[in-house]
Specification:
The protein is of the alpha/beta class. Helix content is 37%, strand content 25%. The protein contains 17 helices and 17 strands. The strands form four sheets. The protein has a six-stranded mixed beta sheet, sandwiched between helices. Strands 2-1-4-5 form a four-stranded antiparallel beta sheet, with helices on one face.
Length: 377
């Protein structure tokens, strides 16, 4: 397998039956496109971990074929294969009597990398996962928090720049706050490294947040549905999937549904240094009760007609009179926009582009209308 590529993973009718006749995985077929995160989710005993462990041959399939980058890994050398696949588990599995740097360097040592190259790579990866090399490289695992140990585990898995990353409930053993941060950090990291990832979890919310695609499995290793999060939430394929994602899937869907940019409307926008009278004139011209106060150096804010009228002769600028507003960037979720709308005054959420410039306003009505639309299949 070419370690410089981002290979597709393909499972073709893969099955695992144990000697006692128990079917752990039942003829599972799915593709994980290069550079994407596929999350395997389902109740305990549904074959999630077994499926993942068959990809790196820690468990041998009974039948079927598994391809990574076009290579049939079921006939490849297992030891060589595992050195080209990163592996992160829930309990991390760091060597307790080795330093952080030594733990991260495990695979480069096995590959007989030159010492200077290994040290450079270790420092690069610690920085990448948000750990200062100068502070952490010589520490031991017991001197780290649970979240820090998980970060070291991810760094170790990435050390030899594997094209594929397998992650078995990697954030399940940390507290909810640390888990949320690790999930956010992992998504940031994936934006940079773009690995092909198979991620196992029992938590549907984690699956929705992290997965480009989600495979819902049930007892006996049977695949119920494999789809992107929006489709899974808006159109569950079976009653089992509907029950598993929960009756509140409509609310969950808001986290994966982008705001409908076509519903954005123009709104009076005035400079932060303009007067209250100027703001009134802009609102009169637009027949609006609010104006957006925009300044290149500041987050856009709202100014109401009531405030502008009361303070128009005071000499105070629009920036002095404005109040914080809900601000949403193009491409952010409906959930994010609604949360902002509920936390701030104003007639809607101000939408800004990548450059921070005001694109327009999503009124509360338009935002709710967008939330009701059917997710694309």
């Amino acid at each position: 397998m070419d370690a410089t590529a981002d290979p597709m993973i393909r499972l073709d009718r893969v099955a695992k039956r144990y000697p006692d006749g128990t079917m752990a995985v039942d003829e599972l077929s799915l593709d994980v496109p290069a550079g994407e995160i596929a999350v395997l989710v389902g109740p305990s005993g549904c074959g999630k971990t077994t499926t993942m462990r068959m990809i790196n041959r820690l468990v041998e399939p009974t039948s079927g074929r598994i391809y990574v980058g076009g290579e049939d890994v079921t006939v490849a050398d297992a030891v060589r294969l595992r050195r080209t696949i990163g592996y992160v588990i829930q309990q991390v599995g760091l060597f307790p009597h080795q330093t952080v740097a030594s733990n991260v360097a495990t695979v480069p040592r096995l590959l007989r990398w030159e010492r200077r190259r290994t040290r450079t790579r270790v420092d690069e990866l610690l920085d990448l996962v948000g750990l200062d090399p100068a502070v952490h490289r010589d520490r031991y695992p017991h001197q780290l928090s649970g979240g820090q140990r998980q970060r070291v585990g991810v760094a170790r898995a990435l050390a030899a720049d594997p094209p594929v990353l397998l992650m078995d409930e990697p954030f399940g053993a940390v507290d909810p706050v640390a888990r949320d941060r690790l999930q956010a950090e992992f998504l940031r990291l994936q934006e940079q490294v773009r690995k092909t990832v198979v991620f196992v979890t029992h938590d549907i919310d984690e699956a929705i947040r992290l997965g480009d695609r989600i495979a819902v499995m049930r007892e006996g290793g049977r695949l119920e549905q494999y789809a992107d999060p929006a489709t899974l939430l808006s159109a569950p394929a079976t009653d089992f999937v509907a029950d598993f994602v929960g009756a509140d899937r409509t609310l969950r869907r808001l986290s994966v549904l982008d705001i409908d940019i076509t519903q954005v409307t123009d709104w009076p926008v005035i400079g932060a240094d303009r007067s209250g009278g100027d703001a009134m004139a802009a609102m009169d011209a637009a027949e609006a009760d609010w104006a957006v106060v925009a300044d290149a150096a500041e987050v856009p804010r709202w100014l109401s007609r009531t405030t502008a009228a009361a303070e128009g002769a005071s000499g105070r600028t629009a920036a002095d009179l404005a109040v914080p507003a809900a601000v949403t960037r193009s491409g952010e979720s409906v959930e994010h926009a609604l949360a902002g709308l509920l936390a701030h005054d104003g007639p809607g959420t101000i939408v800004v582009g990548a450059d921070g410039g005001v694109v327009g306003v999503l009124t509360s009505g338009a935002l709710l209308s967008g939330a009701r639309r059917v997710a694309p299949r």
